[in-house]
Design brief:
Oligomer: heterodimer
Largest sheet of chain A: 6 strands, mixed
Shape of chain A: globular
Strand content of chain A: 35-45%
Radius of gyration of chain A: 13 Å
Helix content of chain B: under 10%
Number of helices of chain B: 0
Number of strands of chain A: 9
Number of helices of chain A: 0
Helix content of chain A: under 10%
Order of helices and strands of chain B: EEEEEEEEEEE
Structural class of chain B: mainly beta
Radius of gyration of chain B: 14 Å
Structural class of chain A: mainly beta
Strand content of chain B: over 45%
Order of helices and strands of chain A: EEEEEEEEE
Largest sheet of chain B: 7 strands, mixed
Shape of chain B: globular
Number of strands of chain B: 11
Amino acid sequence: SYVLTQPPSVSVAPGKTARITCGGNNIGSKSVHWYQQKPGQAPVLVIYYDSDRPSGIPERFSGSNSGNTATLTISRVEAGDEADYYCQVWDSSSDHPRYVFGTGTKVTVL
Amino acid sequence: EVQLLESGGGLVQPGGSLRLSCAASGFTFSSYAMSWVRQAPGKGLEWVSAISGSGGSTYYADSVKGRFTISRDNSKNTLYLQMNSLRAEDTAVYYCAKLSLVVVVAAINAFDIWGQGTMVTVSS
């Protein structure tokens, strides 16, 4: 089965840049989507199709995807960006196609 | 305003059944695939099931296949999840989520709208 691996945690100072990785076998050939989940709230889509932003998502959020790693980058980090972040792909490589989420990364703003 | 509102969660004994509902508003419900995603306490997101816009195609995670059934009533703008033979490991918040396309099988599909979730607790 397809596995997406994320670092458990990332810490960043306000105003700096946070980079959250999502590792998967040849993930560069897939479309990667990213979700932000704040405590007690439902997830929110922040990046789709590797690097596109839904309306209402700040330009500080960007994404890239190549090889075996996809990356979510948050520039000029703010206190309000503190949350869990999940990557997600569609896996059609087996007899049972399915949606797969990454293990999740907790972003802490120092 | 696009909105998804789940209901039907609660406490159920192991081996019991529960049916979740998700009422959709603010968009043309039949034009989009829908899905259920769950999150066990303190854990990450786990995809559970998805259904195409017409309801003709359904997909399940291995962990629930044969026990859960997803369905939809496009005349009522409502998504359902019938959960049978529940186990302790099914305990989670269950989210209803809208997919960005009418079909399920698409790499470019994203979960673009989420409900607030409903808690399911399986315990004796």
